[in-house]
Amino acid sequence: MTMKVLHISKYYHPFVGGIEQVARDCVNALGETCEQRVLCFNHEKGDRTDEADGVTVVRAGCFAKISSQSLSLSYKKLLKREFARDPSVVVFHYPNPFAAHYLLKFLKKRPACKLVLYWHLDITKQKLLRQFFKGQNRRLLERADKIVATSPNYIDGSPYLSAYREKCAVIPCCAARERTECGEETLARAADLKDVFRGKTLLFALGRHVPYKGMEYLVRASKFLPDSYAVCIGGEGPLTPSLERLAEDDPKVNFLGKMDEEERKAYLTACDIFCFPSVTKNEAFGIALAEAMMMGKPSVTFTVEGSGVNYVSEKGVTGEEAENGNAEAFAEAIEKIASDRELSARYARAAKERAERLFSEAAFQENILALFRALQA
To answer: How much is the average pLDDT of 334-362?
Structure first.
C-alpha cells in the first residue's frame, strides 16, 4: 500500500522563508516514494488549491495574523478534509500553534497515523504565548512518533527537546544545488561586483532586518574596520530605517534591499567573508550560512547558546566566532580571517567540505528517507 504523507507548514513555495524552504525540501526528498499533499495558510482571505513541486497544495485563507501566527476560519474544515483522505504520516512543522490545536484533535481519532514533529525552534520571543502553549507542546511531543531537530545543539539547548531525546533525530537543513550553483550570467555579475569593490575586502550578510538577525551588530562592527572593507547587507525589514541611520556616518556600509536569487548568489560568489551576526536562538540553524559554506566562504558568527548556528559553522575550522553581541570582537574576527590568506583559504576549503558532507541535497534526502524507513519498521 502506498504511504500517504500530509505535510503541514505555515506557508509553502513560492513563499520564501526558512521553515517553508525546509518543508519544500522534505517534499522533494521524498519525491515519488509516497503520495504527498501539503496543507498551509494562504496570504489572502480566500482558500486556494494549486500544485507546487508536483504535489497538491491546499492553502487556507487567512483573515488575521497575531504574533506571527496566521488565523483562518476555514482551517478546521480543510484539515478534516485532508484527514478524510486517511494519511499514513503527518509531517508537522512547528511552531504553528493554531494548526496544532486542530491537528491534535484529529490525531486523537487516528491513533494509527504517525506524527513526525519537525521542531524548527522554541517559542522564545513571545513570553505569554510560550507559557500559554506549554501544555500543547507537551501533547505534541508525547504524541510524536519521531521529532526532528536541525542540530544536536538545539536538542541540548531546548528544554522541550532535551526531555524527549529518545524520539529525536538530527536532520540538518539542506543547502540545495539550485540555491548555490551559478550560471554564466551570475558568474559574470559576480565578476562585475569584484571590479566594483576592487581593492576592498568584501563582506556580505543577508537576512530580514529584525532584532534576532543581529544586523545592528554588523553595522556597529563596521565602525571598527578600516576603509579597506566594504560591508554589503541584503534584505529588509522593520529595522531597516534604524540600521540606515546607524550607518549614516560609515560609507563602508551598503544596503542592498530585497534581492532576487541570482543577485544573492552573485554577491555570495564575489564576497570574501560571509557575515552571519544572529544573536538569539530564534536563529535555530542558519540555512543562509550553510549555503555560503557550500559556496566555499569562510564565515564569522557570534557564539549563540542553544542555537544550531555554531553547529553549522565550526569555530577555528570553517570560520570564526565572537562573543555574542560584541561588535568589536566581531570586527576582530573578520580582520583575523581577512589578514591571513592561508587561514582564509583553509576555512573556505573546510566550509565547502563540511557543507557537502552534512548539508547537501543527497545528505538531506538520505536522512529523510532513513527517518521514514524507521517509521515503518
So the answer is: 98
Per mean pLDDT, which range of 119-123, 308-312, 326-330 is the poorest?
Answer: 119-123
Structure confidence by residue, pLDDT tens digits, 118-173: 999 887 655 555 566 788 999 999 999 999 999 999 999 899 999 999 999 999 99
Q: How large a percentage of the chain has pLDDT more than 90?
A: 87
Position with higher pLDDT, 279 vs 17: 279
| Sheet with strand 319-322: strands edge to edge | 253-257, 229-234, 201-206, 273-276, 299-302, 319-322
Selected residue with higher pLDDT from 27 and 72: 27
Q: Which residue has the higher pLDDT, 53 or 69?
A: 53
Q: Which residue segments constitute the domains of the chain, with CATH numbers given? A: 4-174+360-376 (3.40.50.2000), 178-358 (3.40.50.2000)
Give me the amino acid identity at 235.
Answer: G
Mind spelling out the 3-state secondary structure of the chain?
Answer: CCCEEEEECCCCCCCCCHHHHHHHHHHHHHHHHCEEEEEEECCCCCCEEEEECCEEEEEECCCEEECCEEECCCHHHHHHHHHCCCCCEEEEEECCHHHHHHHHHHHHCCCCCEEEEEECCCCCCCHHHHHHCHHHHHHHHHHCCEEEECCHHHHHHCCCHHHHHHHEEECCCCCCHHHCCCCHHHHHHHHHHHHHCCCCEEEEEECCCCHHHCHHHHHHHHCCCCCCEEEEEEECCCCHHHHHHHCCCCCCEEEEECCCHHHHHHHHHHCCEEEECCCCCCCCCCHHHHHHHHCCCCEEEECCCCCCHHHHCCECCCEEEECCCCHHHHHHHHHHHHCCHHHHHHHHHHHHHHHHHHCCHHHHHHHHHHHHHHHHC
The CB density around residue 118, as the number of other CB atoms within 10 Å, is 23
pLDDT value at position 228?
98
Q: What is the pLDDT of residue 200?
A: 98
Matching residue, cell 536541525: 150
